[in-house]
Amino acid sequence: MSPALRIAARELRAGLRGGLRGLRVFVACLTLGIAAIAAVGSVREAIQTGLGREGATLLGGDAMVEFTYRFASDDERAALKTLGDVAEIVSFRSMAVVNGPDGPERALTQVKAVDSAYPLYGSLRLDPDVPLTDLRGGDLPGAAMDPVLADRLGLDLGDLFRVGDRDYRLAARILAEPDDAGGGFELGPRTLLFTEDLEGTGLLQPGTLYETEYRLRLPDGADLDTARAALETALPDSAYRWRDRRNGAPGIARMVERLSSFLVLVGLAGLTVGGIGVASAVRAYMVTKTATIATLKTLGAESRVIFVNFAAQIAAVTAMSVVLGLAIGAALPLAFGGLIESRLPVPVAISVYPRPLAEAALYGILIAALFSLWPLALARDIRAATLFRDTGGLPRGWPRPVYLASTVALLALLVGAAAVLSGMERLTLVTAAGLVLAFGALWLTARAISHVAARMARYKALRGRTALRLALASMGGRCGEAGAVVLSLGLGLTVLAAVGQIDANLRSAITRDLPEVAPAYFIVDIQPDQIDPYGEILAGDPGVTKVESAPMLRGILTEINGEDAESVAGPHWVLRGDRGVTYADRPPEGTKLTAGTWWNADHDGANEVSFAAEEGAELGLKLGDRLTVNILGRDIEADITSFREVDFSTAGIGFVMAMSPNALRGAPHTWISTVYAEPEAEARILREVASAFPNVTAIRVGDAIDRVSELLRGIAAAVTYGAAAALVTGGVVLIGAAASGTPARVYEASVMKTVGATRQTMLISFALRWILLGLGAGIIALVAGILAGWGVSRFVMDTDFTPALGAALAVIATGIALTLGAGLAFAWTPLAARPARVLRARE
Known about the structure:
25 helices; 21 strands; six-stranded mixed barrel; 4 domains; 53% helix
């Protein structure tokens, strides 16, 4: 070990004086990959820390107790007050109405009714800057409104608008709410008013869809688990949801965790692309050291001394690259902290966090070891006779079994670490399998390109096409660039192609999955005594093509056959939160039963339920299973007597559960309706329905699609940026491959000039060579990217997949452009070389 390390130290000193010539691509690839992973991980940690630090502010209290479609009873309020200060929040959707020049104008709004205790934490910023209680002055109740909604309705301070059957005065505009990020996805901008001012609106009737939240400020030092246990003891039979400051914004936290984990995987794929550069750089470096190795062998050095010598050099350069990558990855969030905070709706605690840096360092070390081991293992077998012979590179064949086993172990360790640290085991394994398959396909492609090019160069049909034959012969030569270029660029383009396909499908998922004829409006909160006159109004409108209506309640599926539903079926989306429940005495028109039978129209026996077939299969349900559904605080049990097809992609009315009427007899509820209409009739329909029934809420399907599409565009942009980092790394590898092949092209050009080739012929030959290599890499990357995009879309995002032609052509064009650009950038030295000087030096 001692002689090997002394030799390594001397060579490193010489290498540092020479600017690490031969290992610059190694440093660049490893540094870029580590920096990308460290930066993404640091931002994720900053968001999670900010969410945890400001959990009480985001939630609006130390804890929150939520009731669905009802207020807390007197006993429940008393139990809550024993825990600390209480603030009551009521949230629901409604329509804000103003009298415009052409008649009433309406817009969907998310109403938030509060009491004088709001907010318990944080501060509400209004324009003008006045206390919330000042909104109550004047002849009419005051309200604050989101500036977007106020501008949409043309409201100035002091103007009147109507919600339900009551008029309000716009007293302020909302600049910032302390608990805005914790509320989740909302379809309409905010209107803020006092709960007691809801009297007379006619909005909160039995069955209306609304939620009440009771935020708690606990005494200093109070334990959250103790407070929750005390409430459960005081209210053993109450149906409520508990959330505390430890999970103040669960939706955002979950989205950030998944997106950042996905981006780390994309970054890891980019680091794998860099691994190709690492392998190419180490191989090229070992080729330049062939004479040194042969000399050491001549002087008696053993193979293990050779291996330890160069492994120590690579380890030292890896350590330097890791430190540089971590420094850049930690500095990027600090440098762009203001921009990051301005783009996110949650508090972000920008700082240097050890954990993401340690993860990035681990990935970098494993990648460096994995891709350096093979060329190092081959280099140890260089013979002393190489000193007197020009063999043209490292020994061919496979390394010794111990190195093959070590390679497999390093790969397993890398994939295992990524699966554990990302928290997305399935996606990690799919990504790893895809990268391995892509790597294998690209390696076979490189071999095939070399073989086919060598054969085609000898075709008689190509005689007279000197530039093309030269390009093909060079690609088919032993020292050609086909392997390095196709592997490095192809893997980078594969990542870009996969993300491009995912991006394109993500952007078009909503519009693509909608049916050709979608409803214009969802109408909710229709009271039972309003459903008949509502139907008569729409039946007389010539612009309405179809109306579908159904009674609706909201319920939580709590138990399956007497056991906790989630413990039986797992964390399925049907079990997260409350789901729509309807009832019907006969199957609705178009219903297709897949199993069982529907109850009789006059059924008055045991409660029965018909369940959605696909969701039932995912939950593992079967005919005869007993479900317990909590509706308005009451547990209702029903036996599954049928399964039916429910196509949620129609954008129409679809219920997971439909019960027999006797199960819900007497339960307060409302009706939901979808209205299909001609586009030019939409405004008139909204005006007629809202004027006749001020309590109902109309949700325009197009607006909901726009909101979701906006979120998807942000996610798609983040994923695209991650893929760009992988492509940049591939570009660095490509440049390194072009630079390392310069000496061989100088010798080649000198020989060809000697036999009469012109500079133009050589330039065309170089251009054709790189175009063909880029085309080959692009085509293989495109096929692999489409397969990867299909897998992620189908099995991870659970959406349909359609190949994106534009993204596909862009990948092929990018491959050709990158290879051509890199190749021509290093073509001038061979073209300018003087044959006599080069050939004499070669001798």
